[in-house]
Amino acid sequence: MKIIELRVHVLHASFAKIYGGADRVPLSLRRPAAHFQRIERSGQFSTIVETVDEAGNHGWGEAFGLPHPRMSAALIENVMKPALIGVEFETPSDAYRDLKSYFFALGQTRGPAMEALSAVDSALWDMKARAAGKPLSRLLGAEPGEVRAYVGSVPFFPTPAESVERALEFASKGFQGVKLKVGRGATTDAAHVAAMRQALGGDMPIMLDANAAYGVDEAVEVAKAVAPHGVAWLEEPIPPDNPQALAAVRRRSPVPIAAGENEFDISQFTRFAEAEALDFVQPNITRAGGVSGMLAVDALCSKHGMMLAPHGVGSAIGVSTALNVLRAAKNFACYEANRLLNPLRDELSKMPIQYADGHFRTQDLPGHGAEPKPELLVAFALHDGISGGRDAAE
After folding, report:
1. Is the domain of 217 the same as that of 265?
2. What is the DSSP code (8-state) at residue 80?
3. Model's pTM, two decimal places?
4. DSSP type of residue 338
5. Contacts from 68-72 at CB under 8 Å and sequence distance 24+?
6. Do 82 and 155 belong to one domain?
7. Domain contains 30
8. How far apart are CA 231 and CA 174, in angstroms?
9. What is the pLDDT of residue 28?
10. Which among 100, 153, 106 has a CA at the least distance from the CA of 282?
11. Looking at residue 30, which CATH number applies to its domain?
């Protein structure tokens, strides 16, 4: 495969535009979780990569957009594009390996460099599948079909009653589990979980996401406080990149431990696996190496007896890519259906993501099945820190 063109699209769907002013954006959107209490969210960001081969086949990939999409975009445009244009690669993994080697030699093992690499890798896999006239799932040895989903997330609401109301709304749509954002202390966290369990009944899985709000002892205290209410897992209870500390939490926790959305490379996931720190591994395909990276994490799960439950934040491009890979994964448990307001997920693609009765469904289309509407690439384009003119509420 040979790339003859590579384009970068930096997108922003502004909450202020959607609600008609920043002062009208609900607090639960601006501060949905523990890590957004000081630096609020202004909207949804994404860096989209478009590749074109010499036969005219296109490929689309996504880089994680937070905290700002221009960081990965600059690396793609100024470093990766010159290294890729006109070069012949046997497989996308060959390009991935070469670029990763370069970034690692410079110490760029986390953050925007890996997110940029993830976007390019996914675009190349999409382009390869489109060139073959196959769905990406079939190219990877599986068939299009259903992908089990839980819903994330019930954000930081002031009262348990408000959490219950949102959880019941989600449950009515058939999701196979509901995630609650926690991180406000064991007493408050347990009160919201208890109210949700009572309302949802005993069978609905409840996942908890602390977004690294706690230290080891606090995390264990929270785990013990919520355990009587039948929690499926406690996610990212402490800051990332400390396998031994997370293993200490897991040894003392009465509930399973999940993490991985803030890891970027198989070497990092391996450290957590070897420390026996995780029950569920949660890579985000837009930052953990794209398709090549997700396949490597699935193989790691096979080796260490862990389950794959990927992070589901992203636009239609990232979500569609992940769903296709998960059809081929050997250790798949469930995928996060993120429901935070996101026009880049719900409106951007010509072919919307299909969901019904607790499952996504990948489509029998070439590639991963998502292709941006050209007019929305323009409408959501980020210019000097300000999104394009379209009001996403229209």
Report:
1. yes
2. I
3. 0.93
4. E
5. 69/10, 69/11, 69/12, 69/45, 69/382, 70/10, 70/382, 71/111, 71/112, 71/115, 72/47, 72/112, 72/113, 72/115, 72/116, 72/119
6. no
7. yes
8. 19
9. 82
10. 153
11. 3.30.390.10
Q: By residue range, what is the domain housing residue 378?
A: 3-133+374-387
- Interval 311-367: pLDDT, tens: 999 999 999 999 999 999 999 999 999 988 999 999 999 999 999 888 999 999 999
* 72 and 178 part of one domain: no
d(CA 114, CA 72): 8
Same domain? 119 vs 198: no
Q: The CATH number of the domain where 164 resides is what?
A: 3.20.20.120
Cα–Cα dist 319/130, whole Å: 17
User: Going by C-beta distance under 8 Å and a sequence separation of 6 or more, which residues neighbour residue 190?
Assistant: 222, 225, 226, 229
* CA nearest to 317, candidates 147, 97, 127: 127
pLDDT digits (tens, 9 = 90+) for 225-251: 999 999 999 999 999 989 999 999 999
- The residue behind tokens 């985000």 is 284
Cα–Cα distances (Å) from 155 to 100, 152, 203, in that order, read: 35, 9, 21
CA–CA separation, 62 vs 73, rounded Å?
A: 10
Number of structural domains (the chain) is: 2
Residue 339 lies in a domain: yes
The token pair at 316 is 């239609």
Instruction: Tell me: do 128 and 194 sit in the same domain.
Output: no
